[in-house]
Amino acid sequence: MPFFARWRKQYLKFQECEHTYERHLRAVPTQETPQDQVIDESYVLVYMESLRALHFCKPPLQMHEILYSILQSQSEHFPPVKAACAFVIEWILGRVSVQNAFSRFDHAHAVELLYFLRLFLAVFRLSRYFDTDYSVSQYPQSIHTLDGDCASALGHFFAPGQPVCSSGELTEEQSRFVHYQVRRNDLLCVQAYAGTGKTRSLLAYAKLRPHQRFLYITFNAAAAKSARSVFPPNVDCRTMHSVALRHVLLPEDQELRTLRPRDVVRLLGDRIPEGKRTTEPVHDRSNALAPTTVALYILRTLDRFMQSTDDHIRPDVHIPKNMSLSTDLRVEAIAEATQTLWEMICSNKSRGRMKAPCPHDAYVKLLQLQPLATLRFFAEYNALLLDEAQDLSACQTAILLRARGQCGVIVVGDIHQKIYGFRGGSASAFNARLYSPTATFHLTKSFRFGSQVAALATKVLRLKAPPPWHNEEQHGVWQHPSITGHGSDKVYRDIRAISKPHTRIYRTNALLTRDLLQLSLTLPENEFLFLKTSQNLSHRSIIDLLHDGHRLYHGDSSGMTPNSSLREFSAWKELVEHVEAEDAADGKLTLVLSLQEMIASPDFLAQLEGLDRKFCANEESASIVLTTVHQAKGLEWDSVVMANDFSPSLDACTPFSLQPQVSQLFAQDELNHMYVAITRARCELFIPNCVLQWLVVLDGLFRYRFCEKKRSRKCPQCQQVSSLVQLCEPFAGTLQFDARTETLGCLLCMRSQLSTDDDLHDFVRFIDECGVSTVTGRLTSASITRYEHKMKIPSRLRSKRARLEVSSQQDTPACAGSTALDVLLPHVRAQKYTNMLESKMQSIDTWFTLEQFWLSPRESS
Question: Do β-strands 637-642 and 439-443 pair in parallel, antiparallel, or remain unpaired?
């Protein structure tokens, strides 16, 4: 890379000013400050400076003006201008990807050309939108897709190389971690993306040090059992709960089990607060809250307290937010009742014949409240190995990380796989503000999937804003996620291309169950289903649950199965209240309530019988495996179909941002679910519209291509042999925009439909104005000469422009003229800019509508 990278510097300067301007617009307005004026003026000045750098006397309003700018940009570190013009025309006409610039030109020249293109597109976007005489009915998708192509190519070029390693060898990233010697005061953080071999790395770390002792902590008993069969003898494999139970003294007769709402009612008795719903009653039911509903709010409060690091119950933190929105229960009363329940658990007090059982999270919390209890225990080891650390609660993390000083601590996990927030999973072990690491490592090379799934997962993760604890001054520039794959794979959006067998991954149990019932009716007789879910939602339990739901809905609870979760309720009304108090948790009760319409249908029991016959005993015999994203975590399949029930929607985007970004923590967790589902696929992945919409926001939906005339190609509208316009889309195997092509018509036929799409109008105008041959679709040397003569400006203006310098004290240069952007008042300019950003989000639906229009059968012209 040459030292004088003119276009790269200019584009990055423009980008930084625009990002600063956006942040300024997002800030809550109080009163105008001198800093506001500086930000506004800087943005205008960098636009004017870029306009002059591109050799424009006035703002460019047509795409073909890029050729004039290239012809004026001959320099030592830029491709030959005529070759650059020919390449750019091929690119804009959809015939090549901009990535081809690296094979056609010197790499340094290619980088400068791509930054030049990004700068032109940014200036072009603003010039068009701020021009008062130019009518814009939609955000230009062409600018969006072209800039996305440049950004992707540059990102690929500047990405660190991935050295090839032989089978069984550690990658360079893994080796760097494995050979780092941890000391007793050290905290090592290893961010290991999906399929990158984190357990293999921990295993190598322990094997390399056979004379040291390690304590391996994992999330559940099954994982601990599996680890014992893999790790060497110098590693003790335990769960967090087994460590806690070893160090907390509980009464001998205290039962260890989960508390249920009816347990709370029996334990607290008349100390259960009373309350009413503040929302409108459904079906004329009473507004009074059932005691079990109030008990559920108490249990939710207790759970949050036990998962936190607080030493007492805090009404403002632990009580569910939805309680105050839907009931008149006093937060102080719920906090007091929860505190009473907690004291009963700690002291094993009883009310009548019933003693308070101890939930499993309770003895973990008791250990956290005893800071000295584990110090001697941790000192027996050289280091703790914390696997899947993103799933640890804040309470569990505090216990384990206070071992630092007694032994080293190695935290391994993937913060983007934090999907157990409802169980307290906090990823706080990676919070550099709370626990400053000695060293941080990244494992980015996945051995599970290939380049297409890796690129898709990277795009989804880059939607997430940096975590709130990240401080750029203290921790350096936030390292944006970047995953590389291994081998070949394919990504599709059309489920009709699916092969069987395959696995379907759902975000919610509700849609999974609906699809189960639908598949039981449509699946061929010799094909079967396998339900890969938790034991609580197995094939047999889901059939029984739906039978019990049918009984409860029709007021017959006498025949319910033993231990059914619906036996807690005497009427459907209580179930409704309970689910609303659960804060929309995706549990079994929510599932039953979501199927109310189906349960009420007269043929529901017949549907259940048909479903029961479609299940098979093992996964290998199934045509379709159905699972949820939580059950799929840690697993993988050759062919994966994502269901269309993943969140968040586009509304979660940070407002007033040109590049989509999700900053709300809840919405980021939903993106984590999306990422986990995406990274379960080894060979084939089928994405739904809820994922596709985010990719369209990033890169666009389709683009046009102009093809040269060939005898084998006929216009589908007029049947004449001619040069043709095609529509090109990604996600038909690859993420490239030429993955799928559809011929729309010849240039003559398409001219009659220019009013359909502004981008098509611009595309055809570009062909007309730049002098491209309508037969070959190429630009000849003679055409370039004619274009240069046509666009030529007086030499005196060129020389004058060369003498101009950027200064906030100067008047606008005569050669650049006054533009629509700089003559506006600051508040008007800000409003126009925010309108542009809003139009981008609103145009997403327009692009999907246009796609349907072009791909639908049309009559011949």
Answer: unpaired
User: CA 187 to CA 776: how far, in whole Å?
Assistant: 63
Residue partners of 197: CB distance under 8 A and separation at least 6: 171, 174, 443, 447
> Residues within the annotated binding site?
192-199
| Longest distance between any two alpha carbons in the chain, whole Å | 101
SS3 state at 766: helix
One-letter identity of residue 633:
K
CA distances from 802 to 62, 790, 809 (A): 24, 21, 18
pLDDT tens for 795-804 read 444 444 444 3
d(CA 216, CA 237) in angstroms, rounded, equals 5
Query: Would you call 443 exposed, middle or buried from its count of C-beta atoms within 10 A (0-12, 13-18, 19+)?
Result: buried
Residue numbers in the known binding site for ATP are 192-199
What angle (nearest 5°) sits at the alpha carbon of residue 269, between those of residues 266 and 271? Answer: 140
Joined together, the tokens standing for residue 484 give 């590389």
What's the rounded Cα separation, in Å, for the pair 173 and 164? 12
Q: Give φ, ψ of 480 to 5 degrees.
A: -65, 140
Assign a CATH topology to domain 175-248+382-443.
Rossmann fold (3.40.50)
In the chain, residues under CATH classification 3.40.50.300 are 175-248+382-443
pLDDT cut 90: percent of the chain above it: 59
Report the percentage of the chain scoring pLDDT > 70: 90
Q: What is the pLDDT at residue 119?
A: 98
- For residue 796, give both structure tokens: 């005196």
User: Among 834, 819, 677, 574, which residue's Cα sits nearest to residue 21?
Assistant: 834
Would you say 595 and 549 are in contact if contact means Cβ atoms under 8 Å apart?
Answer: yes
From its phi and psi, is residue 424 left (phi > 0), alpha (psi between -120 and 50) or beta? Answer: left
Phi, psi of 503 (to 5 degrees): -115, 135
Does the structure show a pLDDT above 80 at 66? yes
**Residue 764 three-state SS:** helix
Q: What is the pTM of this model?
A: 0.90
d(CA 784, CA 773): 12
How far is Cα 27 from Cα 820, in angstroms, rounded to an integer? 25
252, 346 Cβ separation under 8 angstroms:
no
CB 386 within 8 A of CB 411: yes
